[in-house]
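Hey, can you fold this?
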Amino acid sequence: MSKNLVFSIELPEKGRLDKVLAVALAAHEVAAGFGLSRVRVQALIKEGCVLGADGAAVLDPNHPAQAGELYEVTLPPPVAAEPLAETIPLDIVFEDDDMLVINKPAGLVVHPAAGNWDHTLVNALLGHCGGSLSGIGGVARPGIVHRLDKETSGLMVVAKNDHAHQKLTAQFSDRSLSRVYQTLVWGVMHPLKGEVEGAIGRHPRARQKMAVVPFGGKEALTHYETLEIFSNLVSLASCKLETGRTHQIRVHMAHVGHPVVGDPMYGTRKKIAGTKQDKGIVAVLHDFPRQALHAGEIQFIHPRTGKVMKFKAPLPPDMKALLKRLKSGK
């Protein structure tokens, strides 16, 4: 089995760490053969593979580096050019020769990427389907028509062939495919039923985040309906996507002041100056380990038969347990 390559490197000049380190690595007799681009160096920094002189990981590619500083760099073993098939249990709601509908659990990454090269949904699909997946998404994303965030649970449709992939993708474009999510959000939305509209693009300062932006974003529309309210502190809501932008529900809910409970990127910790019971409920909500978001319904036209297909997935156990505690007030 390949092992990590660990070595020390001294910076020849000052500047942004990713830029200076890329130059130093290119000149290093051991590292030069790995063809480490600046983008790859940025990924190594973000993955915690670069340690400063104090032994602590430097996680910011923009970190101001000084000439002569010493850094320890770890190069992980190379990953396979194509994802490997793995035996990972799948909750298959529907399957035929053209497609699958999967109920993805929270915590499962959809496709391989930096920090998650294996144990993904793609690895599981390769293990289940072998070579019978659409190649339109490329070798890293075979069969993947759309995605869910790692910590979002629920229904996904996967294409087994290119014909199915093209037909399903077209339904995302013409909005004949619909998805409905259930989520817990902070506070009570007014009105209780409505819509949030706002173009979504990269956050102007925090580039890893999305945001509602005045210019340059893609149109986005989310329909919502409040299903239940708990102590006026948190609401269970249904959200139907009219469009499918990155982090759309999470961004839109945060934009109107009602972020998704447990969302580490767009959420917030609520300070409640209320009753002891209120504080107990808030503590339960703060303890929820992921964004409380579940893709509970999906409807589309079968790519070959033309039949309308509709599937529902119940709330996962963790969200059910959270709702039970909220209803009990404990």
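Oh, and this one too while you're at it.
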Amino acid sequence: MTRSKFILLLALALLGACKEKERVLPDIEPDPEKPTPRYATGLTFHSSLMGIPVAYDIMVPDRYAFDTDKSYPVVYCFHGYGDNNTSWNKASMNIQSKVEALERQGLIPPMIFVFPMGYKTYFCDRWNGEYSYMTMFVTEFVPMIDRTYRTIADKDHRTVIGYSMGAFGALATTMQHPEVFSSCGAMSISMRTDEQYKTESQGAFDNQWGSVFGGVGSTGSARLTEYYESICPLHQFTAENLDKYSGARYFITCGDDENSLLYGNDELHAKMVEAGYDHEYRVGNGGHDEAYWRAALDEILPWFAFLMDGGTDWEHKTRTVEVPDDCEFQIDGSFLSQGYINNGKTEGTGIYLFYKGLEKSLVNEAIAILQRGNPMKKYLILPCEVTAKSVADWIGEWDASYTITSRQAIAVGEAGTALIRNQTPFSYLYFENAFIEGDIQPNLSAKYYIGQSDNSQSAKGIHALYVACKDAGASFEYRCRDHVKDAREDFLMGFEFIKGNLKGL
């Protein structure tokens, strides 16, 4: 056979592979008495590029074998370091039951889920070209899935999600190949800040990072190889690269009980906000475990379904705003609980609400939310406009009016810095979308609540507060929630989250 004839035959073969009617589909005979299992494991695909068989599992829609005229979106699921293609469906994760529950609720359509074996590659090409996993994945594996199964073979109906190492791979793959994926979900990204990366123990760095991204045996800044910086999201999501990467959609989530990974995840969010990247970001209660990732799928998978359906501005409320309309205020603007009044106003917790430039009606609605449902607790809620008086002056003024036996403080928006500079009088401090500047020295005898919506421009200061609390060993809870489009509702939603974390009330 001549070389030109061989090339012609190859081109015709590839053209034919693109036609869905000529796909080599699995030989499945539907049997109503014995439904085809949704989840298949132990499958393999031989990679010509890498010269090895690549294992994978797959989960198809419940009626895949019967509705042979239907094609489906695809979700590629990347596992964590040391896990494998079967890990997504082990008992503690059990993605099949999660998907089935979301389908029953009508939150997601039927989709194909693919679980490739990623080894310990971070789902990336190795720095020296010897083990080109990402290239294999996008040029061989994804096309194989499209040829073999009834997929909707375009980027708008294809997403990649991952946890830990797989989250790094999901982000990197979507960034590097926007022609293949238009969205990704990254849960608890295994990603170090530069300082963490430079100071990682030698053995851990060489085995987990250096072997993939280069720099084995190196220390300090030498570990930040050119190849690593070309792949790492912390180095790539810059203002200069906004046009390059903003075509895809990103969903990032991490638990506030992580030992170390929230440093990098939160820094990435702050950088993306500052550079103008449209993305979703969540921080919830949890650690580096399947329980957190399984719960995160409750929003990530419907978010993908929303995008596939042409949606642009995702809004997923985890709770509703409930403002009582019977909240009675004192002439001075304070609120006194019935329990405090019944006790002769001789003992109570003062909750100081620090704000700047807000309408009084909005402040009153926030106070109404805070007092809801606790009439017999002994407390006062005290509004404090920081442009009128300092934190210390407000404490003195309210002390002159009421007997206050313990103090808590809430700072919103531009009042954040004022409270950071005057933390000592308070046992609990709550920050919501707070702008914070300057040095932060947490009070180790106090407890902190750190909250923000994911599009807040206060992300940089909130990140600095989280890092300061974490480094100092202060007690804290951190939450980042979905933003609400309406500015008033978004502001009050923050108080719903504070309400759920108020101590002693």
